[in-house]
From TrEMBL, chain A:
Carrier of the growing fatty acid chain in fatty acid biosynthesis. Keywords: Electron transport, Fatty acid biosynthesis, Fatty acid metabolism, Lipid biosynthesis, Lipid metabolism, Mitochondrion, Phosphopantetheine, Phosphoprotein, Transit peptide, Transport. This is Acyl carrier protein. Coiled coil: none annotated.
UniProtKB/TrEMBL annotation, chain B:
PANTHER family: ATP SYNTHASE ASSEMBLY FACTOR FMC1, MITOCHONDRIAL. This is LANO_0H06744g1_1. It comes from the Eukaryota. GO terms for cellular component: mitochondrial matrix. GO terms for biological process: mitochondrial proton-transporting ATP synthase complex assembly. The lineage of its organism: Eukaryota, Fungi, Dikarya, Ascomycota, Saccharomycotina.
């Protein structure tokens, strides 16, 4: 009886495997679910959005040439409070909250892009 | 943590809540304004079309036609104008005034500095919670912000009737 059960189960297994061979795509998708994020931000998109925000900031001195290398304090002439304002604006744009410790480290457009790229909640 | 870092953190919190609540109210305000403008322009357009129909002089007709085109363009522009995309709403209107208020005779001894910073955090907490409260009130009372037309429509739908389209 035990052996028949085993045989039965092996048959069942075989049919399953045959089916899985016939439709490998569906089964593999079920086996390892792919994590789908609602938005996929790529680096260029992030940087253009951040640059747009920086340009909208009326305190920036050289608003014409904002690039990834632009440093908030050196190139834009922002003081610490201005930088805070800019970072809050960037937070709002991507609908996130940057923790204070990380925010202290962000001093240029490139660094902001890098942080937002690693943040899964950004959109 | 130094005083400066503490101050920056509280300032940031305050700014965040201010911008969030400001942005929300401004977006709805701009939307309302746009709607009004569109209604006004549509009214003018209809008048122009009427005038054009009754006009005999072909030159005047042409100018009327041009004006109508311009108004149509304006209406389209207004319709395409989405305040959600406005980047300027991510910034506070008068940061210099806010800064002046916050930094005005900033105390020097630790106890009063702590008190001042706590005060800033309290303000930001109040603004944030007030905004959330308003959102909740709105969500639980959908009739509050509904205009008369929508109300009539829904009331009619409730008893199985439908308001005619025009």
């Amino acid at each position: 009886m035990l052996s028949s059960m085993l045989r039965g189960s092996s048959v069942a297994l075989r049919t399953v495997s045959a089916r899985s061979l016939a439709r490998p795509v569906g089964v593999s998708a079920m086996m390892s679910p792919i994590r789908l994020y609602s938005s996929s931000l790529n680096k260029d998109e992030i940087s253009t959005r951040i640059i747009d925000v920086v340009k909208a900031f009326d305190k920036t001195t050289a608003s014409a040439q904002v690039t990834n290398e632009t440093h908030f304090a050196k190139d834009l002439g922002l003081d610490s409070l201005d930088t805070v304002e800019l970072l809050v604006a960037i937070e709002e744009e991507f609908d996130i909250e940057i923790p204070d410790k990380v925010a202290d480290e962000i001093k240029s457009v490139g660094e902001a892009v890098k942080y937002i790229e690693t943040n899964p909640e950004a959109n | 943590m130094t005083v400066k870092a503490q101050f920056l953190a509280s300032y940031k919190q305050l700014l965040r809540s201010l911008i969030k609540s400001n942005r929300r109210s401004k977006i709805s305000q701009i939307n309302e304004d746009n709607k009004k403008q569109i209604a006004l322009l549509t009214y003018r357009k209809i008048n122009l079309v009427r005038q054009q129909a009754s006009e005999v002089d072909s030159k005047k007709r042409l100018t009327h036609l041009q004006q109508t085109h311009e108004i149509t363009k304006l209406i389209e522009n207004l319709k395409a104008n989405d305040p959600v995309k406005l980047k300027s709403l991510y910034f506070y209107d008068s940061p210099s005034r806010l800064r002046h208020t916050v930094l005005h005779d900033f105390p020097s001894d630790q106890a009063s500095i702590d008190k001042r910073l706590q005060h800033l955090r309290d303000i930001s907490g109040f603004i944030k919670n007030q905004m959330e409260y308003e959102q909740l009130v709105e969500r639980y009372n959908p009739g509050l912000k509904m205009d008369q037309e929508e109300k009539v429509k829904r009331t009619a739908a409730r008893v199985g009737l439908r308001v005619p389209d025009c």
